[in-house]
């Protein structure tokens, strides 16, 4: 989807580093932005910058996929226009503490990604048809505020 005017341009593009990362759930809970699945936004140089929030699970595989996505962004592999990564959200893969390898990989990403956020496990989401029925936990509220503060100036300046 390519918006025809800036009023339709999303302030954030939620991009999954792998399937099942949680982009749809986060996009609904946060309440702004476009869930873009697992692909980078296709923007031309004439379009505004795409502010991307990468999403992965806090697992070995999820953190590895996030590392690959950040490396792809840093090299601009297959990207057109301006794509700006705002940060990476690591969503808990279970109610337990993440494995050490996942924590170490996410720690390494701190040197490459502008920001790393973590969102804990929310058991109630497993039984919800719509995550908005559960409501946003405090971690997601904090995430919403942090992302909005980061993109607000650039996004509103283009309107």
Can you characterise this structure?
- The protein has 159 residues and is an alpha/beta fold.
- 36% of the residues lie in helices and 17% in strands.
- It contains five helices and five strands.
- The radius of gyration is 15 Å and the shape is globular.
Outline the fold blueprint.
Elements: E1 13-16, H1 23-30, E2 34-35, E3 50-57, H2 60-75, E4 83-91, H3 100-109, E5 116-119, H4 131-134, H5 138-156
Task: Using brief descriptors, characterize the structure shown.
single chain; 159 residues; alpha/beta; 5-stranded parallel sheet; 5 strands
User: Helical element count?
Assistant: 5
Bin the strand percentage: 15-25%
Alpha-carbon distance between the two ends: 19 Å
Instruction: Give the beta-strand count.
Output: 5
Poorly predicted regions are: 1-6
Largest sheet: 5 strands, parallel
Helix content: 25-40%
């Amino acid at each position: 989807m390519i918006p025809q005017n800036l009023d339709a341009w999303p302030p954030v593009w939620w991009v999954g580093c792998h399937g099942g990362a949680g982009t749809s759930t986060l996009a609904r809970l946060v309440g702004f932005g476009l869930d873009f699945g697992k692909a980078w936004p296709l923007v031309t140089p004439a379009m505004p910058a795409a502010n991307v929030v990468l999403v992965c699970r806090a697992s070995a595989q999820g953190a590895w996929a996030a590392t690959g996505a950040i490396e792809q962004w840093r090299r601009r592999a297959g990207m057109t226009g301006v794509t700006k990564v705002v940060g990476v959200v690591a969503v808990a893969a279970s109610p337990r503490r993440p494995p050490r390898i996942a924590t170490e990989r996410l720690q390494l990403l701190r040197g490459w990604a502008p920001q790393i956020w973590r969102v804990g496990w929310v058991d109630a989401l497993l039984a919800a048809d719509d995550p908005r029925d559960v409501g946003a936990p405090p971690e997601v509220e904090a995430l919403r505020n942090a992302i909005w503060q980061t993109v607000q100036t650039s996004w509103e300046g283009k309107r």
